[in-house]
Specification:
2 helices, seven-stranded mixed β-sheet, Tetrahydropterin Synthase, Chain A, 151 residues, single chain, three-stranded antiparallel β-sheet, 19% helix, alpha+beta, binds zinc ion
Length: 151
Amino acid sequence: MKLIISGDKLTLACAHMLSKHDKCAHVHGHNYQIEVEIEGEVDDNNMVIDFGQFKKSVSEILKKLDHKTLLPQNSKDFNFIITEKEITVTTCENKKYRFPREDVELLPLEATTAELMAIYFHDLIKDQFPKFKITVIISETPTSKVIYTCE
Ligand SMILES: [Zn+2]
């Protein structure tokens, strides 16, 4: 049986940029809407999982990214200089950005595309709920969403 969680606590307002992209190479933002589907057997308590507990766990994972600039630490196109107080990014187009350290979340990704973010969120959630099948749906805009699942 499948359960789906969504809502305000699964919404992220973030800035990001993609390299080598006409429009998205500029720093811009999204209000990401995230839905998570969890699939498993109904247990002895007549539930697959407690909705509240599941939503709390997922929102804890997402919370640290909210209202941050997301930067892909493993990017081949961005060069980072990281100090205690700030992060300087130089792009392959030779643009340079300086961010206060506290405004940035470095993600272990090659790019902050919705596709890679869906895989990243999936794996973090799956670590906490290993016996369930997890599906992550990220809406980057009201008309664009990514769906990722893994057996
Ligand atoms: Zn974007």
